[in-house]
Amino acid sequence: MYLIASSNGGAGLRQAMAILCRGGRAVDAVETAVRAVEANPEDHSVGVGGYPNLVKQVELDAGIMQGHDLTSGAVGALQGFAHPISVARRVMEVLPHVFLVGEGAARFAAEMGFPRTDLLTEAAEEAWASGLQPEMTPEMVARIEELPDLWRWVEIATDPERIRGTVNVIARDAHGQICVGVSTSGWAWKYPGRLGDSPVVGAGFYADDRYGAAACTGTGEMSIRACTAHSVVTYLKLGMTLEEAGHRAMVELNELGGRYLAGMNLVAVDHEGHHVGFSSQEGRSYLYLDPSMEEPAMFPRIHVPLVQRWQRYAQGTATAASCAELAE
What is the CA radius of gyration of the chain? Predict the structure, then answer.
């Protein structure tokens, strides 16, 4: 039995391990561990207190997958509910679907009895306003939903260093079953309705008891395009070692073109219980806990350099167009 988590995932690991030690299932441990992070308003990348999108709405994404039967559930752009990982699990358990988004995901959450919650904290709202004001006038910030060219401001207002932020948890129980869960508030100041890799099976997470599991955090658009989590498990299936599989999946991201390339991190395990983490940034770490340990241990991620590219349109074009439209 073990638990693997991204470095921000420690809040619920001991509680999750208690579930595993009582003979509980991996899926219960994953949900418990992720919910603890979702409930932490100090973590601005997940759940309550997560950074909002460009028009000040907190939209949450989550996905969960069981490796013994490859069942999965996911929700995206979910507003008004604090625990998308639990809603995703209910999608997996009660619907013939895998993925619900937006208003449909919110309706389903309400039908399942989840309480509505105000997700936008004062700290997150202040960060949103201060993040936009260097580029926008106070009037534009106040009337941002009316902007006719909102799409331009996504790339202008976004700092690629702030787009990272997700919680990953992988668990293996006493029955040998693996489960992986991912939850995030996504890219800070994103365009409304944007989905990253976190709720996308094969991109942000994947699990197969026969081979292993992987989960990602970083620039989700990259792992969507490369199917990074699934690639790790596929390479394990093809006979690579865990370290070889993870390194190969990371290096493949350098084959991506386009104007927006930034960072990536992943954690992975194989069916024998070996674990590893990778990051495009030096000095990154992840957490590991097994029944022999009183506290989670922090392990260094292997550094794999990735191409960094962030090419923007001219700021003046967006500013002039937006101001002209608002003045009419």
Answer: 20
